[in-house]
Amino acid sequence: MLAKQNPEMETMIYLPYADWLSAKDRFDEAQEAYKKAGRPDLSLRIIEFLTHNAITEKRYQDAAQYYWLLSTESLRLCTTMGSKATKEDKKHLLNFQEYLSLAEMYQAYHLVNRYIDEQGREIIPTPLFCESAFNAARFLANNLKKDKQLTGINLVHIYFTLSKLGYQFEAFKTARFGFEKL
Fold it and tell me: Is the dihedral of CA 4, 20, 22, 42 positive or negative?
């Protein structure tokens, strides 16, 4: 009510509230409060923190979702597009592209990791899931940069999935590629 009555005090009201929410582990609400306080940088920092924790805890689908949120927030921070874009806008556009690429990578790795987990527990995966895991492994093998290793992504899992499912689907050149990389 105080913020509605005095819009000029929104920063003074929402910033301590966002800090309190963050201290109470209510990160999604804290992120929105930081936005209302006019501090998108702190909002992005919370999402980056959540992303790092999701990767550390091997929750790759959550990491992909957080990277997607980071990409949309980076795009939202751009004020102008095209040839008139400022240096700051170009930085936000580069961040958008990088975060979107990372979201795709971690979403694909979620399928590969799930396939590996099911192999360890000797659960028989469905043919549709196997095909999805195979295509995810192909995507990762083609799009991972040679010079940059992503945190939490295990190349052995990717090439094992590619090899095993490539042989199963009679994609022998792909399976051979995976075996050579292993």
Answer: positive
The whole-angstrom separation of Cα 85 and Cα 39 is 21
Which tens digits make up the pLDDT trace of 1-55?
A: 766 677 677 777 777 877 888 788 787 788 778 777 777 778 888 888 889 999 9
Q: How many CA atoms lie within 13 A of 45 on its CB side?
A: 9
* CA–CA separation, 134 and 94 (whole Å): 30
pLDDT tens digits along 102-143: 999 999 999 999 999 888 777 777 888 999 999 999 999 999
Give the per-residue SS3 of 66-120: HHHHHHHHHHHCCCCCHHHCCHHHHHHHHHHHHHHHHHHHHHHHHHHHHHHHHHH
Do residues 134 and 179 touch, judged by C-beta distance below 8 A?
no
Spatial separation of the C-alpha atoms in residues 137 and 122, rounded to whole Å: 20
Q: How far is CA 68 from the centre of its chain?
A: 6
Tell me the whole-structure pTM to 2 decimals: 0.82
Q: Are the CB atoms for 161 and 181 separated by under 8 Å? A: no
